[in-house]
Amino acid sequence: MAATDISAALQRAQTVLRRRPEIGLHDDASASARWSGNTRIVTSHANGTEMPTDLATELGGTGDQVSPGWLFRAGLAACTATVVAMVAAEQQIELESLEVLASSRSDTRGVLGMEEDDGTPVPAGPSYLQMLVRISAHGVSATRLYELVHEAYRRSPVACALKGGAPIALVIEANAD
Q: Among 46, 54, 127, 140, which residue carries the largest CB count within 10 Å?
């Protein structure tokens, strides 16, 4: 789809949502993760798409699939890249190239439930996240591209969930013997 087609679709959506903002609120597609033995998990979308994950061999996995942490970073990178492409289309900018690299730094001790010497639990999540955005568009200044990426980052749902610390409601259904 060309940038003009994307821009027109986005404008139509904005027009409808200005008239009826209540229809903008919706439930997102759920992700279902099912254990398939050892440390292997298969995550599924309602459309039938499946993504297997496994842990590294050092943690008892086979290491032949991506890890759940990688899926997290992939989601962040893909979401940000998608919104960058949307904003570029809105601004009538024809991108030549766009790449988003999401990386993080984590301490494996956290997922193993280990503690620091003082007894403080080691956090299981990343202590540092970084996104590197490489973008180019013929005839568009670096300043304008920088502003475009910042606007997209502000509007990226996955980045916003991380920045805002969206609350997680943990619901447990346990079947006892």
A: 54
Q: How many domains does the chain have?
A: 2
Burial label, 22 (beta-carbon count in 10 A; 0-12, 13-18, 19+): exposed
Residue 37 has what DSSP assignment?
Answer: S
Q: How many CB atoms lie within 10 A of CB 86?
A: 19
Q: List the chain residues with pLDDT less than 50.
A: none
Do residues 37 and 74 share a domain? no
Shared domain for 89 and 161, answered yes or no, is yes
pLDDT score, position 13:
79
Structure confidence at residue 98 (pLDDT): 97
Q: How far is CA 41 from CA 31, 55, 150, in A?
A: 12, 9, 35
Structure tokens at 12: 């139509």
**CB proximity list for 128: less than 8 A, separation 6 or greater:** 104, 105
- The whole-model pTM stands at 0.87
